[in-house]
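ENTRY TYPE: paired fold submission
RECORD: A
CONTENT: sequence, then structure tokens
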Amino acid sequence: MIKTRFTEMFGVDHPIVQGGMQWVGRAELVAAVANAGALGMITALTQPTPDDLRKEIARCRELTDKPFGVNLTILPAIKPPPYAEYRQAIIESGIKIVETAGNKPQEHVDEFKKHGVKVLHKCTSVRHALSAERMGADAISIDGFECAGHPGEDDTPGLILIPAAADKVKIPMIASGGFGDARGLVAALALGAEGINMGTRFMCTKESPIHQLVKERIVANDERETELIFRTMRNTSRVAKNVISTKVVQMEKEGAKFEDVRELVAGARGKMVYATGDADEGIWSAGQVQGLIHDIPSCAELISRIVGEAEAIIRERLERMTAGAKRQAAE
């Protein structure tokens, strides 16, 4: 068992989080993660309405009696979702852990804190982490350039970002972006984090509510199978490399604006990928960690494996190295 400030604060057995993922963070996956002793997150905006979110939370409660949370991502939108109503649904459902992400979450943090909800804020830079800490967040998820989804515009990989944030952030911090196995967990702890957040790795589990062919595509892909779209629009997003994402990148190079690619990147098309298994149907998120994913285990198998192997790395590999150095010094 690996105990950290994060596991103590959030009441979970293992320092592993399944973060919010659009179209993927549903009750069956979240409950499986929770039952395995890690922290799962329902993705609020996957649910069409706040009432649907209430029903999904209730469905998750039928599947687990362990702690789980809800992700609320605040992003620029032509027609913004009713964030305050989703927030109210989370509070009224008695959820005590929320993952926030995106722009200026102050009003949400304030309201959640008023109702005794712990806030884990996801960000992509040290300055934003410090801002979230000042805002009242209980913990930070620091997201490196390797991640699926929005890596920010600084292009700072986790190997630098995690320790840079650990030097300055006082509240517990988990590492996000590029994590998928025990080696990543041990590395994150060594770099100053209190645990890891995994998205793409959890997409590729038995309980993940996406098509089997997409899971098999993730296993087949290596670390090079992603594209960075919307770079020219300063809204970079890392997605799986496919016919559509490659076309969007080419169009951007030729000066395309968002209106020109809007139909190609529509969320409804991305949702169809997960429903039909056609990986070229639309844009879908995946990180460089695909290169470390070689199977489709259950969440329980995955979490047990990561924690068990992490303990073995710490106890055997690292301790053996230091013990050897001590022996040499004694001789």
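RECORD: B
CONTENT: sequence, then structure tokens
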Amino acid sequence: MTQRYAVSPRETAGMNTTELREHFLIERLFVADDITLVYTHYDRMIVGGAVPTDKPLALPCPPNLKADYFLERRELGILNVGGAGQVTVDGTTYELGNQDCLYVGKGAQDVQFLSSSADEPARYYLLSAPAHAQHPTTLKTQADATPVEMGAVETANQRTIYKYIYAEGIQSCQLVMGLTQLKTGSVWNTMPSHTHDRRMEAYLYFNMPAGQRVLHMMGEPNETRPLWVSNEQAILSPPWSIHTGCGSSNYAFIWGMAGENREYTDMDAVALDQLR
């Protein structure tokens, strides 16, 4: 498990492109037959990916967690962006199709990731935050996640939002998680942009056609910085930073947050004429 340390707006304003990518972009999360974990010092969120092929993968407990098992003092959100698979939690098996979500509560000791087919493996995106209480392990399929339609064709941001783990959905201690799919012809996400100083956020961009990219914008509203992002790469967004992007085609992204609350609407809007 690698680490990413928190940096301030002042430090970020002076970074070059290489430094921005080193601090805020996770370039490779999905490795066949492996689990990749990145520990961030933004609300101590762990971002990860698991790609089992012909054998199960067990969720490890890295030594720097100083725990007997990974979820001893943590909770976990799992969202599948690949083929069909199964996640086994302390002997109970949950079937996850593409874009289905599983919440695993504090105290679960044995978490195993499997794929239904080695030729089309599951690709599990993982978000984990510290937890102070135990909530039940809960599966929610994309069909069960009531979609919300937002945006418009005229502003190139027509999109469908699926909410999984949040105040009115799957219960958690502080984890919030869902995904957004942009419609064909729409390219802007999270526009108008916003900040929420009470919690960090991570984005995983996926469903991006070959050769296409997203230009992700971050930074303080009056001091923005760009990052070019490829398919299945993740962005770490500090609480003080905006997070918005524009793609060369339509795409999808998973949003996940941890911090002071689980209210989906807790955000401080930034008007377009304030961006610099």
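NOTES ON RECORD B: The mean pLDDT is 96. The two ends are 35 Å apart (CA to CA).
STATUS: closed
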